[in-house]
Amino acid sequence: MDVISFHGLIWGVELKNAISVDVHMDVLSHWLWGVLATRKRVNWKISGPMGVLPDLLAFVPSAIYSLMYGIERTSVDDTTLTSDFPAIAWDIYQFSHSAVIVTLAFLLSYMLFKRFSGSKFEQHFEQESRGNPLKLAMWLWLPWYVHILLDIPTHTLQFFPTPVLFPLSDAMYDGVRWSNPIVWFSNIGALGLLWTIILVRERRQKNESNA
């Protein structure tokens, strides 16, 4: 392995570690909620990423910035503040976690789906929604809306509160951190229960259709 490849590998490992600690979020949880909310409506390869992009858009650039400028990795615990992260994280976070901004993106998607009706991208959606710009835009952005909705009660004012009305208002809710045992186990329990119900129901329907 040459020197360039070696340093590239090391940098990649450091970036991965920086993201895993600095982001301090439940990526898998948001992914599963996004896929669950749009089950059978849109391909999981679309809904999964849409469910986690609100965080990744803010924290991946923050991690890269920290590595580039030699900023020490932030250790996240119950005392960590938003200001402990590079300013770029909060700057982007305000946009990616705003229902106002997402609604504008939804409207833009609606116009694009209407303008380019029948595009190959529609193949990722259920047959019933194809050719319907409103439904296509709704299923596309629903995981993002769900992400914001889940973050509102699970973030405190001290650590990345959810600026749901940005830039129209700076009103934010002072919730309970997602790492709180009650919140964490409630989230996992709800996901496990709902996914079990859905998968069992789908299996039963499949068996009935094959009978």
Q: How would you sum up this structure in a few lines?
A:
The chain has 211 residues and is mainly alpha-helical. It has 7 helices and no strands.
Question: SSE layout and pairings?
Answer:
Blueprint: H1 3-22, H2 27-37, H3 44-68, H4 87-96, H5 99-115, H6 133-151, H7 181-210
Helix pairs in contact: 1-3, 2-3, 2-6, 2-7, 3-4, 3-6, 5-6
Describe the structure.
This protein is mainly alpha-helical. It has two domains: 3-179, no CATH class; 180-211. Helices cover 63% and strands 0% of the residues. The protein has seven helices and no strands. The chain has helices at 3-22, 27-37, 44-68, 87-96, 99-115, 133-151, 181-210. The longest helix has 30 residues, at 181-210. The radius of gyration is 20 Å and the shape is globular. The chain starts with a helix and ends with a helix. The relative contact order is 0.13. The model is unreliable at 1-25 (pLDDT under 50).
